[in-house]
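hey so i finally got around to running both of the ones u sent me last week. sorry it took forever, my laptop kept dying halfway thru and i had to restart like 3 times lol. anyway pasting them below in the order u listed, first the sequence line then the structure token line for each. didnt double check formatting much so if smth looks off just lmk and ill redo it

first one:
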Amino acid sequence: MYFYRKIAENLDNKLKIIMDKQKPAPGEGIKSIRTTNVFKIINFELYAKPNLIIMTFGVVGILFSGAYLAYMRAQIEKNNTYVAIGENGSQTLMQKRSKWD
């Protein structure tokens, strides 16, 4: 029993020494965790400093893309058209017609 208690005390002391040496600074977050270089390369965005200009460019680009898709969808519905697929697999834009016409 004495032997196991000594091992546990040694492990506790070693753990305290390691934890004291590796005290992360406030705000470091995941940067303070010991990882491999492969993890840092794959998860680059976790370690890079945020860039407001690049984020703004990305958000504006995504918003414009969504607005363009919505505009195109509205134009197709407004013009009362649909995509028809021919016998040979070609696609053509056709006007919707009533069976009464």
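and the second one:
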Amino acid sequence: MSLTEDNVLLNLLIETVAIIPLNTIEFGRLSIVGLKHLLSYTQEKEKFFVTPKFKVFRYSAILAAKQVSNDTPMHSNMLLHK
């Protein structure tokens, strides 16, 4: 599914999620694909994204590590300071 102007529901969903800080979203509630679409949309539309870049990187790294191993996020949290 592409992000088109006529997809009002998807646009509304992404705009709503973009104003929620990523650190308040439990890991596993937002998929890597969902995060990719969210970031692409906000960059493409030049929309405000509330989470700072480092925290987006941190969230992405932990999310990717979680896909490799469920034990990894604990170690990633220690390495990637909040």
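quick thing i noticed on the 2nd:
The helical segments are 8-18, 32-44, 53-68, 72-79.
anyway thats it, ttyl
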